Amino acid sequence: MEALMRDRKAWIVVGMMFFFMLINFADKAVIGLAAVPIMTELKLTNAEFGKLGSAFFLLFSISAVLVGFLVNHVKTKWVLAVSALIWALTQLPMMFTVSFSTLLVSRVILGAGEGPAYPVALHAVYKWFENGRRTVPTSLVSIGAAIGTGVAAPAITWIIVNFDWHAAFGALALIGFIWVAAWVIIGEEGPLGEPAEEAGTPQLQRVPYWRLLTSRSAVGVLIAGFSAYWALTLAVVWLPAYLTKGAGFSATQASWIVALPSLTQIVFSPSMGALSQWLLARGVSSRKARGVLGGACVALAGLAMIGLPLVIGGPLQFVFVMAAFASGSVIYTLGPALIGEISPVAQRGAMLGISNAFYTLAGLLAPWIMGMIVDVGANPKAGFGTGFQFAGLLILAGGLAAMLLIDPKSDLARFKREPTSPSFPRSGEKVPSAHIG
Questions:
Q1: Does this model's pTM top 0.90?
Q2: 436 is a domain residue
Q3: 45-86: per-residue pLDDT in tens?
Q4: Does some domain include residue 362?
Q5: Quick one: which of 379, 380, 238, 239 has its CA closest to 317?
Q6: CATH of the domain at 298
Q7: CA–CA separation, 360 vs 344, rounded Å?
Q8: Domain of residue 110, residue span
Q9: How many domains does the chain have?
């Protein structure tokens, strides 16, 4: 009965993190869905709007790192509640007529609040699930992001079309306040800490961060995550504008097309997560079951993005949109599990925060670079085409690098060969039991 109650609480937390990430990515997506009316009202060029999209990520990475260290010492319940409250509050000014500067500042603050969201959400979930059972819960949390990015797009666009873009921001603020109230009431901290032996790092309580971050697996995850986030940011900030200004779709049609990658991710991400977990259960190495599989999905996204501008109309264009903006997201299911696999539990929150901070740096660059490329193109269609092909090459290279680099078993063996001082007890001193997650 106790185990059943624990499982029930665990899945309630997963459900709340699902909605947490849904709101998180809906807050991101609204700027892209409202791109054309915002640019019209504020008289912005593509490059200026690109800067607005990039501004969201100005403090995003820094915040992710700082809060990553914070959750090693503070309960995730309260960190999550404060984060979501910041999101809701920063949406409120958008309900009224605003200047470019006000919108810019609001997006910077929102980015600071949302930077730690995914790693902290996963850290909270990992306190309820052992290493071997984390892939599926991780994929479910990731699906929340997919729904927030795309499935909510038609609803947000309906508000924009029938009211205005200011009302869409107001609706998201209200939803954010509701989530905070629900989480404060039902949120609960998980009890789990795993023996180090399960993850292959006996007698190691801590590993220097530089050693963790320069390990093959961490470098591979960072490169793949950065590459995939380039695609994710383009989907959030520029895909709706490309579909209307470059491909000739109406705003309503574009909102449904934007939903396609998210619908794909809802099926594809947990399927790949389940496949990875199935392979692990049958003795396949984590390098193959997580690293090669995740890297291959990122590489597929790169190939699809290279081909996207070459496909004109028809169902095939929709297939390329889905592959380009959905398949790479698998790394956000498998990557955190890989980081958790090589990180001591006392350092896991910080490592997840640092990794999230690194690959979200792509968000600081991708919108701005795409905006500049579009502005120098012969026309919007040509500009977007060049931008997507550049992005595709970058993403393809990142996926291939991850496939070659990621190898948790090798990294863990190296950590054992290069013990840190806490690993050597003084004479007669009992070695404390280490924990890793």
A1: no
A2: no
A3: 888 888 888 888 888 878 877 887 788 788 889 999 999 999
A4: yes
A5: 239
A6: 1.20.1250.20
A7: 23
A8: 2-423
A9: 1
